[in-house]
Amino acid sequence: MSVRPRNDSIYPTGDEGNRLLSETSRDAVAHSLTSPPYSKAENLLPSPRQTLFLMGVHGLWSIISPAGHTVPLSRLAGRTLAVDLSGWVCQAIKAKSLAQKVQKPHLRNLFFRVSTLYRLGASLVFVIDGEATQLKWGTLDKREGRGEERRRRTGRRTILQSYVNECCNLLDSLGVPYIRSKGEAEALCSILNYTGMADGVLTNDSDSFLYGATTVYRDLHTTERSPTVECYTMKAIHEKLALNRSDLIALALLLGCDYCPQGVVGVGKETALQFLRASKSGSQSTSDVLDQFQEWRNGSITEDDIESKIQLTVFRKAMSSPNFPQKEVVREFLRPPDLPSSSSPSSLAGDDTRLRHWRQPLLHSTQVMCHHQPHGRWSTLLEDG
Predict the structure, then answer these.
(1) If 0-12 CB within 10 Å is exposed, 13-18 middle and 19+ buried, where does residue 21 land?
(2) Same domain for 165 and 151?
(3) Do 46 and 176 lie in a common domain?
(4) H-only helix segments in 199-244
(5) Are 203 and 275 in a shared domain?
(6) Where in the sequence is the domain holding 116, given as residue range(s)?
(7) Which residues pair with 80 in a beta bridge?
């Protein structure tokens, strides 16, 4: 089978064109992309647990692991998922084994994952990072190897941007929708899920729950033999671990996250969890833990008011840090997101029907893009025989 280059005179347009293309042309692209050597290429990607950098709250995935469960990838059929594109890009470019095989692993990874999830009946909407908050500049500098002076001049994600732009070109060719966020992509993904515009967030970043996500899918495996994904929900986290959103933000302050990497020195996972349990059982149990932190700082609660040894231990360690609790970090997680303008062509905010509506794919554009990949092998993926 050969995929015929796009010819506007023979392809219907508008809603009818999208309907027909969803049954014919896009299926042809998906079929060709999910044929061998697809499985070999996908297997070259590391598990999210093996990536060379951490995203989100330090140690949070291990803390909430009792609330997660592995499901077959087919469970995503019929669901709309918000995806932070930069997360997929980072995972691909950090996979040394994949980089040794192809020169643009971020495009190959995106190609195969989109095709696989489409064939399963899932709808994807990608979210692109906007301006990085100053809270995250230090973390981005370390991830990207960027000097402080360059960061001061731009304040932007510079190294990843070219990779993301290439991915956006590919998404345009495939007809897959994406939104350009004004701030953190993870925040917008989470609010799309929180408001019901997306059924879940597909990410390895544990910050999603702090931003308000209710359902998160992570550790995506699209191998032919055993395609699976891990599912976490805030409902399960609350039922099994008695943790709510404020508790998770408290863990970010205590253990460290992208916005305050160091956390509170001397406080680890077990201490933090014991503290949260003690905070829910004492005389201040009706108080939100974030409010308790602020009362520590303003003197409303002193050492004499603290009832348990573990609370006193955390109190003393936290108060030794002059910035604790970092109000700007709490505000970052709790503030309403700065949604894209509805007048923007790439904006889907406020209209969840557009999140589920793929555009007409530009098959010729996709074919040309694949043909010109420098590693060469992509050109064979659009044709059989």
Answers:
(1) buried
(2) yes
(3) yes
(4) 207-211, 234-241
(5) no
(6) 37-239
(7) 123
